[in-house]
Amino acid sequence: MRRPAVSTFNSTLPLARFRSLSTVPIPLPVSQSSPNPQKHLFQCNQRILQLGNLGRIEEARHVFDSMSQRDTVSWNSMITAYIQNNNIRDAKLLFNAFEYKNVRTWTIMLSGYAKAGLIEEAKTVFQSMPERNVVTWNAMLAGYVQNGDIKSARNLFDEMPEKNISSWNSIITGYSRSGLMREARELFDRIGERNCVSWMVMVSGYVEISQYREGWHIFVMMMNSGLMPDQATLVVGLSAIMGLNNLDLIGILRNISMKLGYEGDVVVGTAILNAYMRSGSLDNAAKFFEAMPGKSVATRTTMMAAYMQKGRIDDARHIFDEIENPNVVTWNAMIGGYAQNGMLEEAKAIFLQMPVRNAASWAAMIAGFVQNGNCKEGLKLFSELHRTGMVPSHSTFTSALFACANIGDVEIGKQIHSLTIKTRCHSNPFVGNGLISMYAKCNNIGDFSQVFSTMNVRDRVSWSSLLSGLSENNMLNDAWNIFEKMPMRDVVSWTAIISAYVPAGQAERALKLFLDMLSAGVRPKNITLTSLLSACANLGVTSLENSFMDCLYGFHVFEEMLDRDLVTWNAVLAGCAHNGLGEEATKIFKQMEEAGVLPNEISFLNVLGACSHAGLVNEGWDYFISMTQDYGMLPSIYHYTCMVDLLGRAGKLSEAEALIQNMP
């Protein structure tokens, strides 16, 4: 069949089966009788796109229906408008009604399915295409990446007859989002010519898994290559520095941004402000804020939130009062700040004073109640929100589900679940993850498994939530099966499966998994270390604990951790104590003090125990005396017992007896 000229597509024939979706056509001022019909056609196509971008989909459809002539661009524009507004059903109907699809038409539909999480439908479109170009291949590749199917993404990437920089960036993004930075780096090193996106994906990938030094190293490599960072890359570079807590590097990147002309850029300026705040230097942040040439409401809101985070309520309130016309984001930040500091009455007062509330306002107030342990009040406010007719945001649903999990109210949880389905929010991965966690905490195994099986989009949190739920309900075999099926594993999923084997008495298996995690290049979080060390100690598995300590130092895990808290330090000290590593324990204790982490009673108990097992009498006395003299702690009966044991083991019986006489 010979195709008609593009500009002469009959506007009525292709829509014969589609008329039910149309409204009464609205005539346009310029019609086919216009002296310049091509110009009219162009204007209509542009109008469809503009209305689609604005979310005015019915008006866009009116324009489309009113056109006496349509070309392929007209159809593609209307299909795009539907997809942009999450109307995949009508996009599909229009796509099927169009007889003269070109490669762009097919690609638009493919991308629409992928965006909606309908990856099988996207794959069907891809396989049905009469012809493909590199854009089509990239769209399918991006679909797999967006839906977390890195295995299919890699297979498709390897099959691609032609690759461009977007292809490479897409597959690297897939590995990066999955936390598989070793594979991402391997592909990154093979790219012939990199752009800012390539570098940005690598930096953000390392930042995501807390490998901030490597992220900063990649950023420096980009600068040395001669490629200057754009706005987005500068912001990602700053996120790497945030994890390093290095004020000098913040200053360097600040100077670079000024030289590149971003001195007055609100986005970069706000990122620098955040970097100072995340590094704990509120004073530097305040100085930078005062020196900023133009302070937008967003910048003021950021500084206000920083003061709130540090508990400087009056300073935050001063900035808030200075803003002439605070927007809803600023009001919401005040609610969140007060709630964060446990000042729920003040938060509620701000909430009630707001001239206009949006979904985020309700979300902030509900989250404030829930995070402060007032779950019933949070659920009460959620009920009020529902009565207003406003659709709760995804984060609001998540907070409400968290409240149900905390108080174990599965019945209200089920009602909220029904509401998520009614409002079509259940397909959101955050809401889905909240549902899984809620049912798991309430021991409704069948329900949380069903939620997972019906999720269109599953991210790492979805898999980890299911894994944690199975682990918490002692379903070890099911947990292992899920772990093996996971397309992407991060530190959360590794920790969940390791923690599942520990209470089951399978410490050997837990240690083997810990070694596998390290070999895979995944660095543990605090909870991973503490759960394993505590388990080995509680189970009395000294040989295993010794092996664990060996691999901990052999892989340089502990010294590379940037977020070591008191619990982590104490866990490692306990490991040293149980294995008689007295010298190592004293070094760890000194490092903890130098890191600015104040020891507590447990810290001293652990280091005294280590000294006892290693026979370090003088060091033991030093720590025992330091408790009171340096830290103002009174030794408990347990500390005295440790010292008596230390002296007894060393044959200092008279000293041990004297200490017993002075015990409280």
UniProtKB/TrEMBL annotation:
The keyword Repeat applies. One of its GO terms (biological process) is RNA modification. It comes from the Eukaryota. PROSITE patterns: PPR. Keywords: Repeat. InterPro entries: PPR_At4g14850-like_plant, PPR_rpt, TPR-like_helical_dom_sf. PPR repeats lie at residues 102-132, 133-167, 195-229, 265-299, 327-361, 459-489, 490-524, 565-599, 636-664. GO terms for molecular function: RNA binding. It holds the Pfam family PPR_1. This is Pentacotripeptide-repeat region of PRORP domain-containing protein. The lineage of its organism: Eukaryota, Viridiplantae, Streptophyta, Embryophyta, Tracheophyta.
